[in-house]
Amino acid sequence: AKNSGRNNFQFYSADMNAEAAQRLALETSLRRAVEQNEFYLHFQPQIDLDSGRISGAEVLLRWHTEHWGEVSPSRFVPLLEDTGLINTVGEWVLRETCRQFVESSADLPDDFVMAVNLSGRQFKGGHLARYIQNLLLESGMSAKNLELEITESLLMDDTELAIDTLRQLSALGVTLAIDDFGTGYSSLSYLKQFPLNVLKIDRTFVSDVTDDKDDAAIVNAILAMSESLDLEVVAEGVETAEQLAFLRAQNCKRAQGYLFSRPVPIEELMQLVDKRISL
Ligand code: C2E
Ligand code: CA
Ligand code: CA
Ligand code: CA
Q1: Is 74 touching ligand 1 by the criterion CB < 6 Å?
Q2: pTM reported for the whole predicted model
Q3: Which ligand is nearest to the CA of 238?
Q4: Residue 78: what are its φ and ψ, rounded to 5°?
Q5: Phi-psi region of 113 (alpha: psi -120 to 50; beta: other; left: phi over 0)
Q6: Ligand 1 atom 4 nearest Cα
Q7: Organism's domain of life (predicted)?
Q8: What does DSSP assign to residue 136?
Q9: pLDDT tens digits for range 1-43
Q10: How many Å apart are CA 269 and CA 279, to the nearest integer?
Q11: Among 3, 103, 118, 245, which residue's CB has the most CB atoms within a 10 Å radius?
Q12: Helix or strand or coil: residue 253?
């Protein structure tokens, strides 16, 4: 039996390309990453464009391994999703966000918002809202300080389940944001059936807004229609002063991007909040 197992492995490894092999190795280390404390969080400031103050931050997962060093979320998050590990890691992100928020809350404005990314898989078990409710109770973080970012595909995949869970979350008082808006297939009228509060314009539109008429028109249309649907708009990926000027002129209220700050550790976030960012 031992022998045939080995033959099997040889058969597969001969067939497997280098990328698939690396993927498998990454997956193996991902399975141990939580226990080995290899995950940590960075926070990217979000700027309130009326006041210029940092009104919140997006929480972004980071993974550091001894073997590969820093691995990009665009590589490991899809793997977490495929393997279902995102459920465990996603709960860790929520827990750790609450812990760090509460630890720093004395030095943060009352209405400071931490925006956490959620994957579709985290909606599946049907107990997400209860998990978050308990977490808020146990940590002492207020629901108004938590924003949850979800993607369009999550709403499209299992609309019934999504509406149900979003209603429960909304009842808790957390803010619900739709991420990467414009990259999927949903329309604003479709979104109307979900209890959403915030819409994040994908950075692919923002990046071309000052030199591509179509992107400028799309951003303007999103901003105009959001207003009538009572959705707050966040522009992501703002990198230049010209993009910022365009967005402000169109009455966009919130923005994040390298122009203001890259995602940073909590200590740096606290320093930035202290200093404020001049517009
Ligand atoms: P996202 O949710 O769209 O996050 C924004 C990404 O844009 C982040 O990449 C951020 O570092 C990057 N970014 C911010 N400002 C700028 C800018 O001005 N220019 C450019 N070029 N990029 C900017 P990051 O941190 O590599 O994360 C990639 C993706 O991984 C995220 O995209 C999100 O989909 C996923 N992700 C990260 N953390 C989590 C998490 O805790 N849970 C889940 N489910 N997904 C996560
Ligand atoms: Ca996001
Ligand atoms: Ca995004
Ligand atoms: Ca374009």
Answers
A1: yes
A2: 0.93
A3: 1
A4: -60, -35
A5: beta
A6: 60
A7: Bacteria
A8: H
A9: 444 555 555 555 556 688 888 888 999 999 999 889 999 999 9
A10: 17
A11: 118
A12: coil
Report the alpha-carbon distance of residue 135 to residue 99 in Å, rounded.
10
From 30, 39, 70, 77, give the residue whose CB has the most ligand 1 atoms within 8 Å, as the site to mutate. Answer: 77
Token pair 């923002």 is found at 206
Closest atom, ligand 1, to C-alpha of 122:
44
Q: Which amino acid is at 151?
A: T
Ligand 2 centroid – CA 201 distance (Å):
10
Q: How far is CA 204 from CA 181, 214, 219, in A?
A: 10, 12, 11
Both tokens of residue 126? 């049907």
ipTM of the complex: 0.97
Query: 96, exposed or middle or buried, with CB in 10 Å at 0-12, 13-18, 19+?
Result: middle
Closest C-alpha residue for ligand 1 atom 22: 237
pLDDT tens by residue, 149-175? 999 888 888 888 889 999 999 999 999
